[in-house]
């Protein structure tokens, strides 16, 4: 685990009320207690992953949308950059027990991608595919399409570094952070759930931090 001092927060925790108009507010940030059971706040931004950052080349980067869609799409970096952008204020909870509160993510809403490819009604689950050596994770469509879910390119005003999942990372604030797939390269829409990398190795299929869905079903 590596900490990056340049991402250290102050002692005070920003609130939803502090955010500018137009920012999407993750509902968990409005809770009277913002730390789920078993979590402790960190003011750093630790780095954890399964196998390290893969090579990154924006010239060859693609985002593939496929499965139960009307139109399978493969977006290059320029095409992805032309999509409408949002900013999301959200907390971030790692299954290992730390939480980084009050993050501002910037990128493309997941709902925009679902609309662009024509997500079919029977598409009830998503498998996110990372560029990191075949890594995957699964989530239900309602979490993927939540208003505060996005494909982030920036965090707290800075482009996402490779260590933190750049150039594009899926962010699903209402689930544990392993569901927020780093180095995103593909979204596969399915009619049934299919375990990803950590799920096949004992992690929970859903991963709700407020229910402490860390391991098993």
What does this structure look like?
With about 220 residues, this protein is mainly β. The chain has a single domain, classed as Alpha-Beta Complex (Sulfite Oxidase, Chain A, domain 2), CATH 3.90.420. The chain contains four helices and twelve strands. The chain has helices at about 75-80, 110-115, 140-145, 195-200, and strands at about 25, 40, 60-65, 75, 85-95, 100-110, 125-130, 135-140, 150-155, 160, 170, 185-190. The strands form two sheets. Strands 1, 2, 5, 6, 9, 10 and 11 form a seven-stranded mixed sheet that branches. It has a five-stranded mixed sheet with strand order 4-3-12-7-8. The chain is globular and about 45 Å long. It starts with about 25 loop residues before the first strand and ends in a 17-residue tail after the last helix.
- Write down the CATH topology: Sulfite Oxidase, Chain A, domain 2
Give a quick account of the main beta sheet: strands, pairing sense, barrel closure. Answer: 7 strands, mixed
Rounded radius of gyration (Å) = 16 Å
Q: For the record, give the distance between the C-alpha atoms at the N and C termini, rounded to a whole number.
A: 26 Å
Proper CATH architecture: Alpha-Beta Complex
Number of strands: 12
Helicity, in percent? under 10%
Q: What sort of overall outline do the alpha carbons produce when their principal axes are compared?
A: globular
> How many helices does DSSP assign?
4
Number of domain units = 1
What do the pLDDT scores average to?
Answer: 93
**H/E element string?**
EEEEHEEHEEHEEEEH
CATH superfamily: Oxidoreductase, molybdopterin-binding domain
Which structural category fits the helices and strands? mainly beta
